[in-house]
Design goal:
The chain is α/β, with parallel strands linked by helices and about 600 residues long. The protein has 20 helices and 28 strands. An eight-stranded mixed beta sheet has the order 2-1-11-10-12-13-14-15. It has a seven-stranded mixed beta sheet with strand order 7-6-5-3-4-8-9. Strands 16, 17, 18, 19, 20 and 21 form a six-stranded antiparallel beta sheet that branches. It is a multi-pass membrane protein. It catalyses: a very long-chain fatty acid + ATP + CoA = a very long-chain fatty acyl-CoA + AMP + diphosphate; tetracosanoate + ATP + CoA = tetracosanoyl-CoA + AMP + diphosphate.
Length: about 600
């Protein structure tokens, strides 16, 4: 760990000293392997060499430079996965433009917000998303600062849907453009802004996280070192390029370390291993619920015909870790933890099941991660001097990272919104004037330094005087129901302290045996953690990175007048789940049924 960290900091220091930015490092890779395959697009088998990708990036740089874009300007990319996506941000970086990686699932207010908050001067979007852009054209031009007729570009085919005639076709615009390198960029620094990556927006509008050139490279370098990804590896990525895992960590193994990237437009559980077999992939990236979706697929010969030796990602639940590894013959699983904007980054490079990272218990200073002890309400525990207390081994605490401007891996750039940034900083933690980034994630650490994710602050709830981890309950329910989509959250009950557990399960009364579920839950969970309410839904709402959304579910609670789905209640006298009616709900509210 110490050796790898030294390498990362040394490279960062060299790049700062030499004023190298990301396209400089990519061009060095192009010189090393110009004719090697850089990107293979799995959807149509189109192949790009490093030379091809660099030529496309040069044409992008020359075109947007001619339009008047300069260092410090921002261009928003609202695109599905494609090789052009990578070529676009490389080309824009060559002229010092900052790139906003906008989630292509956003619509209306969320979309215009993301374009505006980054102060974008231009918008490039996939032609398949033309209708979504057409819906917000007036807002973009009026308050977004974008000249739609001049600075709004459709790419990768003819625009689909209404409004297509209002946009420029970037594919046509780039034809005949010089593929020679643009003029050298004056005044560039390794600490310049490279891109904005947005939070998932599960608790409000997405926030634009600032990623600088040094941080972008350090993240890819860390995965390269700890996971031992080599130039001979073929990396499979179906994660969105607008997200850190797909657009930075996976793509970065190709950009700076010479691996070949196999890219799919979007995740497909049925095509995942088919692609891996066809293209002889050796490394896969995953996030969120992706591995569970793969486990839920029927068995196929391709499950074990692939060449995958390594899976890298986060969000693989302990309950299916070993099952996943055994079923798909994955030799090694590397889990990492790190919020996009934060400085709390750890890697479980030894593959200990369930752990999301490792910190040194011999030399704790190697990593800025600290677990701050919290009480039952999620508040930081302070000692008699007013300073925070560290969580003991096996005790839950909020992950926090010490902030340092001097050290790249401890820097906290936060969001483009300075007010939002200040809310994530805790001061006077262990001594006067020190500052820590608050991750909002509850974790625990064992005696060997392995770190385990428990829950998001606000997701863990308290019932019958005990803390309930929604992540733990979700994992148990999913295992019982053969990896079905499940979202667990706490709901308020009139007259009761804390929140009762509620599970939203994708299924019907015919496909979900509630009696069997209750029997298995009673064997696997303490009584206070068994969900008091169950909601059977037709589908689950997830973010673009396959994380389950809970805010709307939590707000609707178990109110049968608000919830459009069937709701069931664990009756304390009948000891079984019964259909929740208005009468039964009134009995609960009046306290006539003792919970």
């Amino acid at each position: 760990m110490g050796k790898n960290l030294f390498h990362m900091l040394h490279y960062a220091w060299m790049h700062k000293r030499q004023r190298k930015i990301l396209p400089d490092l990519f061009e060095e890779q192009v010189e090393r392997t110009p004719d090697k395959m850089a990107v293979v697009y799995a959807n149509d088998d189109h192949r790009w060499t490093f030379r091809d990708l660099n030529s496309y990036a040069n044409s992008v740089a020359n075109y947007f430079s001619r339009l008047g874009l300069r260092k410090g300007d921002t261009v928003a990319l609202f695109m599905e996965n494609s090789p052009e996506y990578i070529g676009l941000y490389l080309g824009l970086w060559k002229i010092g433009v900052v790139v906003a990686f906008v989630n292509h699932n956003l619509r209306h207010e969320s979309l215009t917000h993301c374009v505006r908050v980054a102060k974008s001067r231009a918008l490039v979007f996939s032609s398949s998303l033309a209708a979504a852009v057409a819906d917000v054209m007036d807002e973009l031009e009026a308050g977004g600062g974008i000249e739609v007729g001049r600075m709004c570009f459709a790419v990768c085919g003819e625009p689909a849907g209404h409004g297509g005639g209002s946009f420029k076709r970037l594919d046509q615009e780039l034809q005949g453009m010089s593929t020679s390198p643009p003029p050298l960029l004056a005044g560039k620094e390794a600490d310049d802004k490279a891109c904005f990556v947005y939070t998932s927006g599960t608790t409000g509008l997405p926030k634009a996280c600032v990623i600088r050139h040094t941080r972008f490279f350090m993240m890819t370098h860390g995965i390269h070192l700890f996971a031992a990804v080599t130039p001979d590896d073929v990396v499979y990525n179906s994660l969105p390029l607008y997200h850190t895992s797909g657009g930075i960590l996976a793509a970065g193994q190709m950009l700076f370390w010479g691996s070949t990237l196999v890219l799919r437009r979007k995740f497909s559980a049925s095509n995942f291993f088919v692609d891996c077999v066809k293209h002889k992939c050796t490394v896969m990236f995953h996030i969120g619920e992706l591995c569970r979706y793969l486990m839920a697929q029927p068995g196929r010969p391709t499950d074990t015909q692939h060449c995958l030796r390594l899976a890298i990602g986060n969000g693989l639940r302990l309950q299916i870790w070993k099952q996943f590894q055994k079923r798909f013959f994955i030799q090694r699983i590397i889990e990492f933890y790190g919020s996009t904007e934060g400085n709390v980054n750890v890697v479980n490079y030894k593959g200990t099941p369930g752990a999301c990272g490792t910190v040194s218990v011999i030399i704790p200073a190697l990593n800025p991660l600290k677990l701050l002890k919290v009480d039952g309400n999620g508040k930081h525990v302070r000692d008699s001097n007013g300073y925070c207390v560290l969580a003991d081994v096996g005790e839950r605490g909020e992950a926090a990272g010490q902030i340092s401007v001097r050290l790249t891996h401890r820097r906290f750039d936060g969001y483009e919104d300075k007010k939002a940034t200040s809310k994530k900083v805790l001061r006077n933690v262990f001594k006067p004037g020190d500052e820590f980034f608050l991750s909002g994630d509850i974790m625990k650490m064992d005696e060997e330094g392995y770190v385990y994710f428990c829950d998001r602050t606000g997701d863990t709830f308290r019932w019958k005087g005990e803390n309930v981890s929604t992540m733990e309950v979700e994992g148990v329910v999913q295992q019982i129901l053969d990896h079905r989509d499940v979202t667990v959250y706490g709901v308020e009950v009139p007259g009761m302290e804390g929140r009762a557990g509620m599970a939203a399960i994708v299924g019907t009364e015919e496909t979900v045996n509630l009696a069997k579920l209750l029997q298995q839950l009673s064997l696997s969970l303490p009584a206070y953690a068994v969900p008091l309410f169950v909601r059977l839904s037709s589908s689950a709402t997830t973010t673009g990175t396959l994380k389950l959304k809970k805010v709307d579910l939590r707000n609707e609670g178990y109110d049968v007048d608000k919830v459009p789905d069937p709701v069931f209640f664990l009756h304390p006298l009948l000891k079984t789940y019964v259909s929740l009616t208005n009468e039964l709900q009134a009995e609960i509210a009046n306290g006539n049924i003792r919970l």
